[in-house]
Amino acid sequence: xxxxxxxxxxxxxxxxxxxxxxxxxxxxxxxxxxxxxxxxxxxxxxxxxxxxxxxxxxxxxxxxxxxxxxxxxxxxxxxxxxxxxxxxxxxxxxxxxxxxxxxxxxxxxxxxxxxxxxx
Length: 119
Known about the structure:
The chain contains five helices and two strands. The protein has 119 residues and is mainly α. The chain has two domains: 1-55, Multidrug-efflux Transporter Regulator, Chain: A, Domain 2, CATH 1.10.1660; 72-112.
């Protein structure tokens, strides 16, 4: 399918498609006249990319995951594992941020907030 049709069906701009192609997230064949021709599965890949971005995945992460997902014997299970891993990393980061918040509160309450803490 041509770039305009894919952009319309995926609700993304043509520039976004070109950007994703430069990153290797999607691929197009070139016709004799130089037009991009995207395979039908590009639409599914774009919908995954948009959803993954919405769920907090960076494009670099998505790029690393895409090939694994498409070649997985059980794609649903593979997605489940990716989401579980992402959730664990988010929860770990939230714990780290909570500890940092607590330390900042303690330092603000002390007389000298930048005084090094004893270890």
